[in-house]
Each structure stands twice: as structure tokens, then as C-alpha cells.
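Q: What would this chain look like folded?
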Amino acid sequence: MPDAALIVSTRRRPGRAIYTRPSAITFNDRSCEAGKEREEDGHAARCGRRPPRHRARIAHEIVERDRELSALAIIGIRARGDTLAARIRDAIRSHEGVAIPLGAIDITLYRDDLTRIGYAPVVRESEIPFSIDDRVVVLVDDVLFTGRTVRAAMDALVDYGRPRAIRLAVLVDRGHRELPIRADFVGKNVPTAAADEVRVHLAEVDGRDEVEVVAAVPGALPPESPPKVPA
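A: My prediction, written as C-alpha cells:
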């Protein structure tokens, strides 16, 4: 499927006031100066830009780095990393005429915070219908943050075999690493605060391609909850 425009926007987090840092987002809409929010009817307006076709660029960089396509495999981290992995695989097939093995891996049981997320975590099925032994495996995820998800994915992956190498491709790198992990292929670097949320929406799952940076000022009152007036 062709790439839709990937919009980077900011929005209000429920219960918090919105802010934008000048370095966080670049706008080319003249109605929104770089780093500033436009207000419409008391709500922050979304102003985005059309960045390069991330899928095609990442696919090109993968092929340029590992020309031996017969040894390449692409595995997406559920959820959304698997959707992005399928897009990258399709882009490589379109440009190179080679069908790269595609898989999906669930990392729930490998998380280092498993005991903190509840007694009945949602475990999705991993699908890797090929041997990863001596392959160059490209792990794909939507957002790279602390690095803990990627660490869990690598732990899960080696249970399936011994790859020649593991590379990492992400749509968004938002910084704030807690582990020594770096992406080999990045769609977009988005500066954030550690408390911000980055939400990736994909057309196959959400009906639109969009990256939302949900930024908040701690301690602000929810817009739905006005200050109480003493009786």
C-alpha cells in the first residue's frame, strides 16, 4: 500500500495542560510557526508537516547495508512494529523484486516489568515461520524510548535461534535511553520530555498515519474539572 502522509502533531493529555517546546516539532504550515501551538476554540490545534516517505527510506537503507538479501529477515515487535515491518518488507519487494521473510514477535513474557503489569498480561502470538539461524534479522518497532522493549525482543528472538546479526529499525526515536541500545535505521528523531507520550497511529490499525506527541504540564487541572469554589 502507498505511504500516506505521516503527520507529527501535539495534543492535550486528559487532565493536563498542553505545552510545546520549540525543538519538538517543525511545522511548514504558515498558520503555525515552528514550535508554537495555535489555539482554536480553547483547544490546541494540530499542525503537521509531510516528512519524507519513511518506509521507502528505511527499506533503502536496509538494502544498502545488507546487500545479501537472501540472508535477510524482518521481524516486527507487536503491536504496530509488525505492521511497520510488513510495510518495509513490501517496499523492499517492490524495489528489489525479492520477498524477504517476515515475522512478528511478542515480548510480553520477556519484559522486565512483567510482575508490575498485572496478573493476566495480554500475550499475543509470535509468528516466525522460518529459521533465523545465520540470518541478518531486522527488528522493527514503532517508537524507541528506554530500550527495554528492544532488550526484551532480543531475548525473545534468541530463543528461536542464533542470528548472524540483529539490526533495529524504528519509526520514531524519542530519546531517553536507559539501556545501551541504538537504532540502525530511524524514520524520524523526535525530541521529547521523559514524561511525554508518543502515540503512533497506522492506517491498517487506526485508519490514519499519524504520530502524536502528547505533552503535559504536571499538576495542571483537567479542562473538564474547574476549580472548586468554597461554599
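Residues 81-96 form the longest helix (16 residues).
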